[in-house]
Amino acid sequence: MDTSVPSEVVYQRPDTFTPIATHYCPGCTHGVAHRLIAEVIDEMNLREQTIGVASVGCSVFSYNYFNVDFVEAAHGRAPAMATGIKRVLPDKLVFTYQGDGDLASIGMAEIVHAAARGENITTFFINNANYGMTGGQMAPTTLPGQKTTSSPYGRDVELTGYPMRVSELLATLTGAGYVVRRSLHDAKHIRQAKKAVRLAFETQVRGLGFSMVELLSTCPTNWGMDADKALEWLEEHMIPAFPLGDYKVSTDISQIKVK
Predict the structure, then answer these.
(1) Is beta strand 210-216 parallel, antiparallel or unpaired with respect to 93-99?
(2) Model's pTM, two decimal places?
(3) Nearby residues of 40 by Cβ (< 8 Å), 6 or more positions away
(4) Using one digit for the tens of pLDDT, what is the confidence trace for 96-132?
(5) CA–CA separation, 206 vs 250, rounded Å?
(6) Of 166, 143, 106, 156, whose CA–CA distance to 219 is shortest?
(7) 101: exposed, middle or buried (C-beta count within 10 Å: 0-12, 13-18, 19+)?
(8) If we measure between CA atoms, which residue out of 253, 233, 110 comes closest to residue 180?
(9) CA-based Rg of the chain, rounded to a whole angstrom?
(10) Which residue from 87, 91, 152, 89 is spatially nearest to 119, judged by alpha carbons?
(11) What are 33-74's pLDDT values in tens digits?
(12) CA distance 179 to 246
């Protein structure tokens, strides 16, 4: 090996990513989502202008991983807190990072009305079809027949209804400028997710209203399977239930080309 030839750097930690060990379970894709957000903030050179709002759930410590200003919201109330911050500091890039229990259950009214008002904030919605932090209970996004600690025989839609499809719901609101669903189960879809993160932030920077990226994510621990199987399960079961796609994209954003 010729050591005189300079090596090409193919990976480095974003400046927006803090160098600490993760608290997430092995195989959890929260860390992938964090990485994408950090990379985009760096690429947009907005680290000093960014304020994040952490939710209650597995991502409750997400403020530890981002080298930006961060606050912790009460359960489900991240959109309300982000609304206040953005209205007082309109020049800041403000985002919430929320799981399905936080956003689609106790916080459903908060996210719906933030989108309806066209609040110029960005939300990253991690959908892993269960309450991850509190023991794997059934969430509003749990699939029909899916077993959880509170639905050991599988979700019975006659008793508990059908899963909430949040992206489709919010896309009907006039105040929403960019609402899409992506997945984190393989390299191709992770790259697509990063583009969506960039376009969501571009929506906010350009003052085009509420933006949200829903990210289908794995939960190997509560799903009772290893990391590889969890990725397969997401692809085989979650994507058919939560189709990937663009549900609301403003004309100004649809014309932006990102790598």
Answers:
(1) unpaired
(2) 0.94
(3) 194, 197, 198, 201
(4) 999 999 999 999 999 999 999 999 999 999 999 999 8
(5) 11
(6) 143
(7) buried
(8) 253
(9) 18
(10) 87
(11) 999 999 999 999 999 999 999 999 888 889 999 999 999 999
(12) 6
Sheet (strand 122-127) strand order: 69-72, 50-54, 93-99, 122-127, 210-216, 176-183, 245-249
Structure token pair of residue 106: 């106790």
Residue type, 35: R
The token duo for 197 is 């993160």
**How far is it, in rounded angstroms, from Cα 128 to Cα 43?**
28
CATH number given to 30-254: 3.40.50.970
Q: Report the C-alpha gap between 208 and 120 in whole angstroms.
A: 7
Reduced to 3 states (helix: H, G, I; strand: E, B; else coil), residue 66 is: strand
Domain boundaries, the chain: 30-254
The encoded tokens of residue 232 equal 């397969």
Amino acid, res. 63: Y
Element (H, E) at 199: helix 187-205
Listed as own residue / partner, the contacts of 242-246 with beta carbons closer than 8 Å and 24 or more positions apart are 242/127, 242/141, 242/163, 242/165, 242/167, 242/181, 242/214, 242/216, 243/181, 244/181, 244/182, 244/183, 244/189, 244/216, 245/180, 245/181, 246/179, 246/180
Contact 186, 239 (CB under 8 A): no
Which residue has tokens 């961060």? 70
